[in-house]
Amino acid sequence: MSTEGENPIEKKIIVTEDGPYFVLGGLLLVHKMQVVSEYGEPLAWKTEGARELGECYVLCRCGNSHEKPFCDGTHCKVEFDGRETADTRPKAERQVVLPGSEKIIVRRDESLCSKSGFCGNRLATIDQLVLGADDPNLRSQVIAMVERCPSGALTYALEAGGEQIEPDLPRQVAMYLCRQLTDLSLPKIGLLFGSRDHTTVLHGVNTVHRLIQTDRALFDQVTALLQSLRTP
Ligand code: SF4
Ligand code: FES
Fold first, then answer.
1. Is residue 20 packed enough to be buried (19+ CB in 10 Å), middle (13-18) or exposed (0-12)?
2. Quick check: CB of 74 below 6 Å from ligand 1?
3. pTM of this structure
4. Would you say the C-alpha torsion 123, 125, 126, 132 has a positive or negative sign?
5. pLDDT score at 159
6. In 8-82, which ranges are continuous DSSP H helix?
7. CA–CA distances in Å: residue 34 to residues 51, 184, 191
8. If pLDDT is split at 50, 70 and 90, which confidence band does 57 have?
9. What's the whole-number mean pLDDT along residues 202-213?
10. For residue 13, with 0-12 CB atoms within 10 Å meaning exposed, 13-18 middle and 19 or more buried, which class applies?
């Protein structure tokens, strides 16, 4: 660990050739668990805790370690081939449009999917819900599923040719609340959220404003948050 007077190690993650990730600079390791319903349906992510592991630690990239998430050297025994295999075509070429309603256009980029299962429940998959998404209730379920997709595989637009919305909802809701509850300018709010550009803040605020027109559950959540934060 660096001591006072020493130059801190730059925070970065190094991908080694056919080997693990080197994590430098004292980055916290956050443990997240899926929250599931009584039927085993994924509902949300819960942060279980963050560990300080010092200035440098090494994470498995090959998937074969017996001490995951840390590397235990097994990548050498299995002769891990870490060469890039990702689909590098432009996103627009990788995406397919799910057939269904014209009121919401959902696109899926299968190459990004991490199989976390948020895009379905015990009654229906997102593909089935999109077919009936002229119904506002089904449409709000589709939007909620896209927003919970952790990999960025799903996007939606509210009209053909419209802007594709990717999930970044929790931070966008926080930006929206800042805008509603304070006199801070867009650039100042951007600074509070890790030096984000004012256009990113504006996009976040506008996204939440638009979503709460159609997503009843989100409207209720945002309203409750506003009320509780306004209560002295
Ligand atoms: S599309 Fe998203 S929500 Fe669905 S399984 Fe893949 S990562 Fe999970
Ligand atoms: S990268 Fe070392 S064990 Fe997986």
1. buried
2. no
3. 0.60
4. negative
5. 79
6. 74-77
7. 18, 35, 30
8. very high
9. 82
10. exposed
